[in-house]
Amino acid sequence: METADIYKVIERMAALIRSEERKRCTELGIQIVHFQVLDYLSRCNKYSDTPAALTHYLGMTKGTVSQTLLLLERKGFIRKVPDLADKRMVHLQLVAEGWEVLRQAYPKDLFNKAAEFLEKNCPEVGDAPFIEALTALQKAHQSHSFGLCGTCKYFTTKPEGFFCGLTGEPLTKSDSEKICQEHTVP
Amino acid sequence: METADIYKVIERMAALIRSEERKRCTELGIQIVHFQVLDYLSRCNKYSDTPAALTHYLGMTKGTVSQTLLLLERKGFIRKVPDLADKRMVHLQLVAEGWEVLRQAYPKDLFNKAAEFLEKNCPEVGDAPFIEALTALQKAHQSHSFGLCGTCKYFTTKPEGFFCGLTGEPLTKSDSEKICQEHTVP
DNA sequence: CATTATTTGTTTCGAATCGAAACAAGTGTT
DNA sequence: AACACTTGTTTCGATTCGAAACAAATAATG
To answer: Which nucleotides of D are covered by protein (CB under 7 A)?
Structure first.
């Protein structure tokens, strides 16, 4: 009874955050979708920086995503880099202008201020409940949870360092902190 | 250091929820904004069911909101009712078809399933931290927090029942559970 | 009480977005 | 070699978006 309400509260926060982001995007002359794309590209890992992954992440059709990317490219926010192994694929990279717009659109002040109030009001509250809630949500969402690499079922630690159990590739600490489209909740 | 990250986690949840909502809206042939409008109208109180309030809530321009409402009216989801006291104002009401679409678009299953996982994994976690986080976010957002009537600074309890300290009007229990544009965090 | 400002909502315009479907090109399978 | 599948683009028409101009009602001012 009580637990279901948690996600209603989260939804309210989501609406508030969305509203703030929308206002900032309008001031910057971009659409809120563009912000979401830039934000995703700034956080995703090398397996997940393709138009197809974006399509899954945003829940849009690939045609629409293609158009959005075209515009972001024209505006000089992103760059397309062909994949060396698979000639169909394209990797998307944020360029300097993209990072700058992202920085300006991100409601950092709001988050910092909110965190301040929260800290003052109940200093004993840690981030544990929120991380648990996110994990549960990802588990419920199934399919592609787009979680952080380091929290994945296939993330393994060896004496030599981190590895991805799916691709077998070694991973840096930075890699482990990024969003992966293949992410699977343990 | 740790508290600021809480809102990053919340933002990730927001993105996940948004993605699910977008998919559902596409299936229903509506835009995600339409869902947001219907959702808001289903939760707001009688002081907050106007185009102007929606404009503030969504962070859009009033022209755009006007167009969106026109379409929702054409589709038979909402109805416009003129205000009796102020002839400029219009009140927006959800009609049966609107409620039905809202019900279909709302990611209830996702929330229920997530709540189930959360309950199983850490039964001791209550909704308190989440409500605190929401309150802090509303406080940080200032201006119009669009909070629940019952959590407002001007919400007062008298022997005769609930009252709004701003308008002086009596409020039912149902009123106190709705979103108000005049909401002020204590 | 008349004039002026402000609020509330609509209309109009052009650029941009959206989803659907067709398309092209590369990869994998049989 | 033929076929299916994946990946991304193009094209189309309906819709959305923000900006600015507009109309009407209310509030404020003198």
So the answer is: 6-12, 15-21, 24-27
A105 CA to D15 C1' distance (Å):
26
Instruction: Check: CB of residue B170 under 8 Å from CB of residue B160.
Output: yes
Q: Which amino acid makes up residue B158?
A: K
* Torsion sign (Cα): A173, A178, A180, A184: positive
Distance CA B79, CA A150 (A): 49
Mean pLDDT by 10 residues, chain B (186 residues): 71 84 86 89 81 84 91 91 90 92 88 88 81 82 65 71 63 74 64
Cα–Cα distance for residue pair B181/A19, rounded to 1 Å: 14
- Distance C13 C1' – B79 CA (angstroms): 27
**Cβ-based neighbours of B64, under 8 Å, separated by 6 or more:** none
pLDDT tens-digit map of A76-91: 999 999 998 899 999 9
User: Which contacts qualify for A127-131: CB closer than 8 Å, 24 or more apart?
Assistant: A127/B2, A127/B3, A127/B5, A127/B6, A127/B9, A129/B122, A129/B125, A129/B129, A129/B130, A130/B6, A130/B9, A130/B10, A130/B129, A130/B130, A130/B133, A131/B9
With beta carbons less than 8 A apart as the criterion, state whether B44 and B180 touch: yes
- Per domain, the residue ranges of chain B are 2-125, 143-186
- Residues of chain A in contact with residue B130, where contact means CB-CB under 8 angstroms, are 6, 9-10, 129-130, 133
Instruction: Determine if strand D comes within 7 Å of the CB of B86.
Output: yes
Written out in words, the top-level CATH class of the domain with range A2-125 is mainly alpha
Nearest to A183 by CA among A163, A154, A141, A140: A154
For residue B159, the one-letter residue type is: P
